[in-house]
From TrEMBL:
Signal peptide: none annotated. It comes from Alligator sinensis. In the C-terminal section; belongs to the ROK (NagC/XylR) family. The lineage of its organism: Eukaryota, Metazoa, Chordata, Craniata, Vertebrata. The gene is GNE. This is Bifunctional UDP-N-acetylglucosamine 2-epimerase/N-acetylmannosamine kinase. It comes from the Eukaryota.
Length: 722
């Protein structure tokens, strides 16, 4: 059994101020309550929880069967700047008596609200250890200042993203006291979407409303520019009225300016408008079902840029309140929302779309990490904080055992014969690989891909790997923007016009990237192989077919119709052998594994293949391997075929040199080592002198398809470019 580092139960005080922070704190509270042998839970409720105008949301804490040990009325009404300051002062007056009575070992404080600042200040001055949830993030308005102030008061930090972790380290916080856990609310979110949601939609929006055909609106005042935020809210309501879709509008929070925003709602008759449902509060379990199945969410709530990404629901983020937040591709920003037309245009662009699910803010395992972190706290350690001033250690993140989790990708390789899924680390190490025969039908293939990915993702937890996304390498022409296989090669049946992204993203709640296998090979070289740091290079893949990828100015070229780098179909002879594409004289018709197998069978049928030292059993299929073996053993005809194939490949490379002028050509695949000498000879004799200086090398990567699929994920997610 796990042991606490202390000889007694840890007394944990969780203080919650409003409906938003309770949605993050509740999963932790349930976890603490479930492990009563380690923890004593004390719950303090204050702030807008206790105000009727904001829904008396303390009741949902009672409904969750938590004992509320103290209720503190700390809000001074007025909903302006002075009222916020007075509310902080009132909380500071009342909290010392409560903390003296409870005597907690540690207080858990969430986020960036003014109430939370009062909690952190009181606890710090009374020598109570503070665990701050969601520190290090960047948004906008006064919230940033409050959040970072709480960070400086807190002794321990639980952050949700790697960027937030880096911000905390940059703020000189002790990296041994930072836990990268993910957002606690994601532990509930990722299992919520498939629950019975139809009934919830009907309760809050009406019997006639269908999924994906309504809007959720949640907009708060911006305390540093109240006048503009009220005007923006008015424009938002006008745009929603014009858009004419059923809309659930939640009342704003209690910040300065909220009273004026409510007046705007009532002035426009929103509470009585047939298309609107205006509510003070929706229970979190029901709220996440509503946003998961909405056609769009609009406003400036952090929920829109954080939690909603888990479902791929389109979001319109208005104004500057969330400036700096990391977001998924489902978020459309309208930073300067100064006209109704801008907001209306955003609604037309976003409504009804479905985006890949994003797990930037969590993977559903935050609470176990946080509980482990709490158990590791040694109360005998000095209470005084230590700051780690520069130089700062590089990118150290901790999991539940305070060991860095390995940032990894799930890589999928769809070959003509086998289907492979691997866990690949940031350094290109294949941590785990699963191989199955590739099914012949579309339905069986999709089902198996999802099953293998789920299995690998589960195994990743045991292997201490944090999966950032799924990358898929497949044959054929691919639209990587949409994650769709447009046309497949003949080697993979029932594989045209296939949406790969949606079913896998929906099942795993992970972002998914898809690209052609040749392009993936080039990406693998760029990240892990000879192409690392090279501005312009070309990769040629020699295998069953011939493919490739082109890197120009460090970026992969896809072409206007995603047909770039079909290098196997460069024509090197007008009257050459027929290719699988239907043309004649393509490189693939000479130099692919299929082409060599064809020539090997011809020789074998004429009894010209086998030489001394070779045998082919009756049941054995003649392949390119036998042709290569025969050439090595002195079969002149086999050697001529290989030389012709190498010459065809070399002529194709010369055409590439004269077209793209790369500084490097990488030959990849099982046949590369057999062709490189001939290719270099052809370049020497056929290429222009200015192009002959090119380096031609054989790839040193053991598995470029899987590594390339992984690099789709690792390059994108670590750049954070959206």
């Amino acid at each position: 059994m796990e042991k606490n580092r202390n000889n007694r139960k840890l007394r944990v005080c969780v203080a919650t101020c409003n409906r938003a922070d309770y949605s993050k704190l509740a999963p932790i509270m349930f976890g603490i309550k479930a492990e009563s042998e380690f923890f004593e839970l004390e719950v303090v409720v204050l702030g807008s929880h206790l105000i009727d105008d904001y829904g008396n949301t303390y009741r949902m804490i009672e409904q969750d069967d938590f004992d509320i040990h103290t209720r503190l009325h700390t809000i001074v009404r007025g909903e302006d700047e002075a009222a916020m300051v007075e509310s902080v002062g009132l909380a500071l007056v009342k909290l010392p008596d409560v903390l003296n009575r409870l005597k907690p070992d540690i207080m858990i404080v969430h986020g960036d609200r003014f109430d939370a600042l009062a909690l952190a200040t009181s606890a710090a001055l009374m020598n109570i250890r503070i665990l701050h949830i969601e520190g290090g993030e960047v948004s906008g308005t006064i919230d940033d200042s409050i959040r970072h102030a709480i960070t400086k008061l807190a002794h321990y930090h639980v952050c949700c993203t790697r960027s937030a972790e880096q911000h905390l380290i940059s703020m000189c916080e002790d990296h041994d006291r930072i836990l990268l856990a993910g957002c606690p609310s994601y532990d509930k979110l990722l299992s919520a979407k498939n629950k019975d949601y139809i009934g919830v939609i009907r309760i809050w929006l009406g019997e006639d409303v269908k999924p994906r055909d309504y809007i959720v609106a949640l907009q708060h005042p911006v305390t540093t520019d109240i006048k503009h935020s009220i005007k923006m809210f008015e424009l938002t309501l006008d745009a929603l009225i014009s858009f004419n879709k059923r809309t659930l509008v939640l009342f704003p929070n209690i910040d300065a300016g909220s009273k004026e925003m409510v007046r705007v709602m009532r002035k426009k008759g929103i509470e009585h408008h047939p298309n609107f449902r205006a509510v003070k509060h929706v229970p979190f379990d029901q709220f996440i079902l509503l946003v998961a199945h909405a056609g769009c969410m609009i406003g400036n709530s952090s929920c829109g840029v954080r939690e909603v990404g888990a479902f791929g629901t389109p979001v319109i983020n208005l104004g500057t309140r969330q400036t700096g937040r990391e977001t998924g591709e489902n978020v459309l920003h309208v930073r300067d929302a100064d006209t109704q037309d801008k907001i209306l245009q955003a609604l037309h662009l976003q409504f009804g779309k479905q985006y890949p699910c994003s797990k930037i803010y969590g993977d559903g395992n935050a609470v176990p990490r946080i509980l482990k972190f709490l158990k590791s706290i040694d109360l005998k350690e000095p209470l005084q904080k230590k700051f780690c001033f520069p130089p700062v250690k590089e990118s150290i993140s901790q999991d539940i055992d305070h060991i860095m989790e390995t940032q990894s990708a799930l890589a999928v390789d769809l070959g003509g014969t086998n289907l492979r899924v691997a866990i690949v680390s940031m350094k290109g190490e294949i941590v785990k690989k699963i191989t199955q025969l590739n099914p012949k039908t579309f339905e069986d293939r999709i089902e198996l891909i999802v099953k293998m990915c789920v299995e690998a993702a589960s195994e990743a937890v045991n292997l201490n790997c944090r999966i950032l996304g799924v990358g898929i390498s497949t044959g054929g022409r691919v639209n990587p923007r949409e994650g769709i296989v447009l046309h497949s090669t003949k080697l993979i049946q029932e594989w045209s016009s296939v949406d790969l992204r949606t079913p896998i993203s929906d099942s795993l709640h992970l972002p998914v990237w898809v690209d052609n296998d040749g392009n993936c090979a080039a990406l693998a070289e760029r990240k892990f192989g000879h192409g690392k740091g090279v501005e312009n290079f070309v990769t040629l893949v020699t295998g069953t077919g011939i493919g490739g990828g082109i890197i120009h100015q460090h970026e992969l070229i896809h072409g206007s119709s995603f047909c770039a780098a079909e290098l196997g179909h460069i024509v090197v002879s007008l009257d050459g052998p027929e290719c699988l594409c239907g043309g004649h004289g393509c490189i693939e018709a000479y130099a692919s594994g299929i082409a060599l197998q064809r020539e090997a069978k011809k020789l074998h049928d004429e009894d010209l293949l086998l030489v001394e030292g070779m045998t082919v059993k009756k049941e054995e299929v003649v392949s390119a391997v036998h042709l290569i073996q025969a050439a090595k053993l002195g079969n002149a005809k086999a050697d001529n075929i290989l030389r012709t194939a190498g010459t065809a490949l070399g002529l194709g490379v010369v055409n590439i040199l004269h077209t793209m002028n790369p500084s490097l050509v990488i030959l990849s695949g099982v046949l590369a080592s057999h062709y490189i000498s001939t290719v270099k000879d052809v370049i020497c004799h056929q290429a222009l002198p200015s192009a002959q200086a090119v380096d031609v090398v054989v790839s040193n990567l053991a598995d470029p398809a899987l590594l390339g699929a992984a690099s789709l994920v690792l390059d994108y997610t670590t750049r954070r470019t959206y």
